[in-house]
Amino acid sequence: MGTFKAIRIDKAEKGTTAALTQFDEADLMEGDVTVRVEWSALNYKDGLAVTGKAPVVRRFPMIAGIDLAGIVEQSSHPQWKAGDKVICTGWGMGETHLGAYAGKARVKGDWLVRLPEGMSTREAMAIGTAGFTAMLAVLALEKHGLTPRDGPVVVTGAAGGVGSVATAVLSKIGYHVIASTGRLSEASYLRDIGAAEVIERSELSGPAKPLAKERWAGGIDSVGSTTLANILSMTKYRGAIAACGLAAGMDLPSSVAPFILRGVCLLGIDSVMCPIELRKVAWTRLARDLDQAKLSEITHEIALDQVIDAGAKILAGQVRGRIVVKIL
User: Fold this and answer.
1) What's the pLDDT tens digit per position in 173-220?
2) How far is CA 312 from each of CA 76, 98, 292, 327, rounded to the nearest angstrom?
C-alpha cells in the first residue's frame, strides 16, 4: 500500500473545498478491482464538483472525477486480471464513490468496460462521459428509427464536449448536422469537425412557441431549458430529440404541442447508471464511428494540478471540446 496524488473534496463551513493532496491507498473504498489510473477527463459535472457550484458530491471526503481509463493492478473479479486495460465512467464515481482524479481507484469489476481494440487509454478519456453520452444519444435516435434520409439534425451546445463528439459522429455516419453555439467564434472549428451549418444560440433562446417552423428531423441537446423547448417546437413530424444536459438550467418551459400534434419524441439519456451491455455497444461504436483525427482536434490535455482552475472555466462556457487529464 502507498500514497498517491488525488483531488480531494471536503465539506467546509460554507460549501466545499477542493485541493490536490496525498491520499492513502488504504483509505480507498471497497471494490473487487484496483485500477492504476492513467488518464481521466474534465466533464461539466466535474466542474460542478470541484467548484462546489452544485451538490454533486454526496459523501466526504471525496476524490473528484467521474471518468477513468487505466490498467488493472489487482482483481478478485472473475472477468478482470492484472494488466487488463479498462474504462470506467459514471456509477457514482466522484459523487458517492471515490473517483478518478487520483493515482489509483478501487471499483466494482461490474462497472468496467474493456478498452476497445486500437483505442488508447488517452483516446478513451478524450471521449469520456461527454463522448459516451453523445453516443448513447445517437443510439437512442437510431432506435427511434431516425436515418440521415429523414433530414438534418441539430446539435446544441455544439462546441462543448457532448456537442463536439455528437457533431463529429453524426457527420461521419451521414447526417447533415446543424450546430448551435453561443460562440460563433468557434464556427470554423465546428465545420472542421463535421457541422454542415452553424447557427447562433440566440435563434433558440427566446420563449418557445408551442409549434414553430419545422427545421430538423432530430437532435441532441446538452443545454436544456428554453433551448430544448425551442428545438422541440421546430422538430419535424415524428422526429425525436435526445436530451442529456442542463447547462442552461433544469427547467423545460415547453408545451405538449410538439408531442401531440407532431408526434415528436423526447428521449432521455442517462450515462451514470447506463446498463453494462449498452455501454459495451456504445464504446464499440465510438471506436468505429468517431474519426481519431477529429477526436485529437477536439481534445487538449492538462495535468492533475490544473483541474480545479479548468473546472471553473468549463462552467463559464470557456472550454472548447474535450479536456483529458494526465494522471500518471
Assistant:
1) 999 999 999 999 999 999 999 999 999 999 999 999 999 999 999 999
2) 38, 21, 28, 20
